[in-house]
Design a protein that fits this description.
The protein is of the alpha/beta class and 295 residues long. The protein contains ten helices and ten strands.
């Protein structure tokens, strides 16, 4: 019997969750608009996650924080025809996008559900594979989410998840946070709000998954550069897709936005190439499994 105690959350954690859910609902249309771009940028990471978890024909796969769903759609082909992929997100606006894309591809073994990473409303031991790309870092209590992932995995089941690496290794987004923070006079994201770099420490990520009683935990780094034809393309996509920024930018005056643009043009000047902008990006890919039942 597990006798460990889960720390009682602060009183306002429910409000924080509600704000985070609203943040992602607000940017869902942009994720739908840029879905193919998101798939292309994540293609190498998607392939690696599927290679590590090896979804096989007939197995059940759960994708958490699916966004536009490219990862789960790729997994669906591997478990077809009699396997199943459940694509889930904390907001229905995202799962609707994933469902529409599955219909367009005529993937009949895909269904969608609205699920919270910290409270996965699925039975114990119900999935062979769990996948989560760039989602765990945004939950208020990642240790609870990691335990939930283990709970829904069958014995011997596999998990692969990604989070962004250190902020300094991801200037494609870090310079935006710096510029916006300098303009508004406070850090972005604000203290206490989980953001893209909240799980960027490799050793801490390993410890998080081991503390959830997952085994064979490994973490590797993958380069995920952001390529754009120029400043406007990079800024349009990044500002549209970065959930923590959307509400902040929407509240700024035109003068403030122009000041941010000026800061950013200077910040990305060193990343210009003859074909456009190439900004470094590093993701941490963690893989693990639930221990099999002893024979």
């Amino acid at each position: 019997m597990d006798t460990r105690q889960i720390t009682t959350p602060p009183p306002d954690i429910g409000d924080l969750r509600a704000r985070l859910h609203g943040m992602w609902a607000a940017v869902a249309p942009a994720w739908g608009e840029h879905a193919e771009y998101v798939d292309a940028r994540r293609a190498r990471v998607t392939d690696r996650m599927l290679d590590l978890t090896t979804p096989r024909r007939g197995e059940r796969v759960l994708e958490l924080a699916c966004g536009p769903g490219g990862l789960g759609l790729a997994a669906a082909a591997r478990v077809a025809p009699d396997g199943e992929v459940v694509q889930s997100d904390v907001v229905a606006e995202m799962t609707a996008i994933a469902a529409a894309r599955a219909r367009t591809l005529d993937l009949t073994n895909v269904r969608t559900r609205v699920l919270d990473l910290e409270r996965i409303a699925e039975p114990d031991r119900s999935y062979d594979v769990v996948l989560c790309s760039e989602g765990l870092m945004f939950v208020p209590e990642p240790v609870v989410a990691a335990r939930e992932i283990r709970r829904v995995l069958r014995p011997g089941g596999r998990v692969a998840l990604t989070v962004w690496g250190p902020r300094a290794c991801n200037p494609w987004l870090g310079v935006v946070f710096d510029a916006v923070g300098a303009q508004i006079g406070r850090p972005v994201p604000p203290p206490g709000v989980p953001g893209p770099f909240s799980l960027a420490d490799r050793d801490a990520l390993v410890g998080l998954l081991r503390d959830a009683d997952l085994v064979d935990v490994e973490v590797e780094e993958l380069d995920v550069p952001l390529r754009a034809t120029g400043f406007e393309e990079w800024w349009t996509r990044t500002s549209a897709l970065a959930g923590p920024l959307a509400a902040i930018l929407a509240a700024l005056s035109e003068d403030a936005l122009q000041a941010i643009h000026a800061r950013l043009r200077t910040a990305v000047a060193s990343y210009r190439t003859p074909t456009g902008l190439v900004l470094p990006g590093v993701t941490l890919l963690a893989s693990a499994r639930r221990a099999p039942v002893p024979s």
